[in-house]
Amino acid sequence: MQSDTYQIGLKNEEAVKKMSKDKGEPDWMLKKRLYSLSVFESKPMPTWGPDLSGLDLRDLAYYVSPNVGRADDLEDLPENLKKTFDALGIPEAERKFLAGNGAMYQSEVIYERMKDQLKKQGVIFMSMDEAVNKYPDLVQKYFMTRCVPPTYHKFAALNGAFWSGGTFLYVPKGVKVEMPVQVYFLVDHPSMGQFEHTIIIAEDGASVEYIEGCSAPAYIKGGLHAGVMEIFVGKGARVRVTTIQNWSKNVYNLVTKRAIVNEEGRMEWVEASLGSKVTMLYPASVLSGRGARAEHLYVSFASDGQVLDTGAKITHAAPDTSAYVISRSISKGNGRAIYRGQVRVNPGAKGSVNSVKCDSLLLSEESSTATFPVEEVYEEGSDVSHEASAGKIAEDQLFYLMSRGFSEEEARALIVRGFMEPVTKKIPLEYAVEFNRLIDLEMKGAVA
């Protein structure tokens, strides 16, 4: 790269042109970036959700070069980065159980590796930047066309203009990737905007599991994470995406994730959120083929000063489609956890079934929670339900555990882990262990 950073300001078009030129992109991608920029600049900031007034989009570095080059092996990374990824990602002993492994530092993917067997089966696993140049026709077919177009909302358009890094994962027809593919994202720069773009394509009868971990150290200035994920699930295919998010608590985490699921396809979302100042995350499943299914599982922990606004958007666009959502949220201090969901059953989507269950646990008098469901049903005979509950840790539960030798802090942490168990049991073991450790740290000092 010829430039270490790009700063947004009054010359956004010049910045986009320079970024695209430095990356050696084809003309169609530059046109996509410039169109996305025009959409971004035309749309106002959203005002319907959490307060975003503290986010200054003019004070962000929109591209930061890692200046470490590409590594053929994680052992080739600089010592400080190697230790960071070892600490935050899957341990070396577990990497043999991965089909592919990648790492993104700042605005670029600096490492990726896929098992040779999958390459022979036609699986593509590489950074989006590399895929744009190696597979331009394939990327152009899917990039911000019918899944997440730039017009989807303001921050999707921002990603379309300034995206860098992310993953391109393509699984051919009938290929089943038995082991997960993992990518880890690390931001280590004050006031940075990270805009990775990920596309996952599972052709008919294919299956794959994608795991991503996200982290950033704390800085005086905050940052913005506005990634986009587009997923295409073919006929009878299966995709599972697991995200463990632990951004520092001054990052605005405004992410867009959307999947189009064809006939008898299955999409599974598993989301665990601990960090960020504000999170706005509503993975969407468009069930476009008969018998398509979606599963959305969420767990979030909102501490002091955090607003975690998460949910699901599900569209039943074909007959006999089904989806269910399980959301578990915890709030402590003045933290606020929100479930915001939208379910739509289109005309003609006969036999659609949709179930949403939201449970919230409040650990202090100042903590709060809310549920905002929207249900639009345009087909008779559909089965659409929504349940929500909120409560505190019961004194009899505490008394029972403390009578068995647990301290009050240990007892609270144990109850919280049990509350989250319906979701955390879906997380791969090594991630679940680390997630529970982070929960224990958050629980220190929690007050009933």
Structural account:
The radius of gyration is 21 Å and the shape is globular. The chain is built from ten helices and 25 strands. Helix 2 (27-42) packs antiparallel against helix 7, helix 8 crosses helix 9 (408-424) and helix 9 (408-424) packs antiparallel against helix 10 (429-443). The protein starts with a strand and ends in a 5-residue tail after the last helix. 24% of the residues lie in helices and 37% in strands. The chain has a domain at 5-281. Strands 4-3-7-10-13-15-18-21-23-25 form a ten-stranded mixed β-sheet. The chain has a six-stranded parallel barrel with strand order 14-16-19-22-20-17. Strand 3 and strand 4 (108-114) form a beta hairpin. With 448 residues, it is an alpha/beta fold. The model has no long low-confidence stretch (mean pLDDT 84). The chain has helices at 12-22, 27-42, 79-88, 116-120, 128-134, 136-142, 154-162, 395-403, 408-424, 429-443; strands at residues 5-7, 61-64, 100-105, 108-114, 124-127, 167-171, 181-186, 193-194, 197-202, 207-215, 223-225, 228-233, 238-246, 251-261, 266-273, 278-281, 284-287, 293-302, 307-310, 313-316, 322-331, 336-345, 353-362, 368-377, 383-392.
